[in-house]
Amino acid sequence: MMRYLLLIFFSVMLTLVGCGEKSKQNSDTSQEIVAKTIVSNSEENSKVKFPVYNFDSFEPMLHLEDDTTYIVNFWATWCKPCIEELPYFEKVNTEFKDNNVKVVLVSLDMPSMWKSRLEPFVEKKGLQSEVVILDDPKQNTWIPKVSEEWGGGIPATLIYNKDKRLFYEKGFTYEELTNELNQFIN
Q1: SS3 assignment, position 70
Q2: Keywords for this entry (predicted)?
């Protein structure tokens, strides 16, 4: 009985210590923060080809106020509707580049999938849009910061510029995506 109580005690203590948050004052501009790749010390992260962000380091990318219209698509390699719409985001990234449109593909794949699935997928598909990895287990905290409308499902897309912001929790056809984008660039 005493062993079980000690085991429970240490489990609770480890959980409490692991749940503590550390805040850090950062004086970098949002552009500098976006330019940094936030990678943890784990071996998995150190070998991955794409920038790995926690939400705090990624969030400035959702609030840039320059002359660009951003299409930020949240997806994963295991999500069939996400995979089906990726060619449309790639086409928009290419065709609307002269209109100051930038597509950012935010992978929500699990860390164990980054090397084995995400990297080969991006390479095989020849994705040219910027691919980043969002690795933050506190979804209940960061999802509403992306959009209060987001229920957490993917695919999900945020289209914004300095004047307008729209969020979609759905898959797109090319026509739907360009129609929505035209609200920002026309």
Answers
A1: strand
A2: Isomerase
Sign of CA dihedral 84, 114, 92, 177: positive
Look over the chain and give the mean of its residue pLDDT values, rounded to a whole number. 82
The whole-number pLDDT of residue 47 equals 66
Cβ atoms 129, 103 nearer than 8 A: yes
For the chain, domains (ranges, CATH) are 29-185 (3.40.30.10)
What is the phi/psi pair of residue 72, to 5°? -110, 110
Token couple for 164: 């307008």
Q: Beta 165-168 vs 156-160: how paired, if at all?
A: antiparallel
Q: What is the pLDDT of residue 69?
A: 97
| DSSP-derived 3-state class of residue 31 | helix
Distances (CA, A) of 107 to 79, 98, 99, 164: 11, 25, 25, 24
Rounded Cα distance between 63 and 16, Å, is: 33
Give the integer Cα–Cα distance in Å for 3 and 111: 34
Distance CA 77, CA 64 (A): 27
In this predicted model, which residue has the larger pLDDT, 16 or 139?
139
